[in-house]
Each structure stands twice: as structure tokens, then as C-alpha cells.
Design a protein that fits this description.
CATH class: Alpha Beta
Shape: globular
Largest sheet: 4 strands, antiparallel
Structural class: alpha+beta
Distance between the termini: 21 Å
Number of domains: 1
Radius of gyration: 13 Å
Number of strands: 4
Strand content: 25-35%
CATH architecture: 2-Layer Sandwich
Order of helices and strands: EHHEEHHE
Strand order of the largest sheet: 2-3-1-4
Length: about 90
């Protein structure tokens, strides 16, 4: 399954998080299987999201959607995010 890693800076994490959470049903409907949200310890305004997707086509479509762009504006994403489309190659046991 493909993954999408998004790295972006937010103006205020407490503003961003509820917008991200309220978009969970939309992500699920578009093919997201869930994932993780991380914050940079040294720079708490840097947020990294890693999401698993049903397929690459759905992932790419969602990442280019107007709904996502609007949510990023509402959540206070401060600059253009870095978006990476990934495939799992191996899962180390340790």
C-alpha cells in the first residue's frame, strides 16, 4: 500500500489539529487508511503527517483536491507543504 508523507509548518498547532481531525471522514471516504501525526521536538510548528492509502491514484487525487487546500488554509498552514508519495519496501523487526 502507498503512503503519503506531508511536512508543513503551521501557525498554531492548536488551531491546526481540530481542522485535521474534522477532515477524518473525508480522508477515509477518499481512501485513507489512517496513519500518524508527528511534531518536530525542536520546532513545534513543524508538523509531519504520514498516511496510508488504498492506492496511489486516490492518494494523489486527494493531495491535489480543493477540499484539502481549503482545510490547510483554515488550519493555518503557513507555507507550501512538502508532499512525498512513498511505498513500503521493508519493515525491520527491530
Amino acid at each position: 500500500m502507498p503512503y503519503v508523507l506531508v511536512r508543513h509548518k503551521v501557525e498554531d498547532y492548536t488551531r491546526w489539529q481540530p481542522v485535521f481531525d474534522e477532515n477524518t471522514p473525508l480522508r477515509q471516504a477518499r481512501g485513507s487508511k489512517g496513519g500518524y501525526v508527528f511534531r518536530n521536538i525542536d520546532n513545534p510548528s513543524e508538523v509531519i503527517v504520514l498516511l496510508e492509502w488504498e492506492n496511489l491514484e486516490k492518494a494523489r487525487h486527494f493531495m491535489q483536491s480543493e477540499e484539502l487546500k481549503a482545510a490547510m488554509r483554515r488550519g493555518g498552514v503557513a507555507e507550501q507543504p512538502d508532499i512525498y508519495f512513498l511505498e513500503e519496501v521493508t519493515k525491520p523487526s527491530v
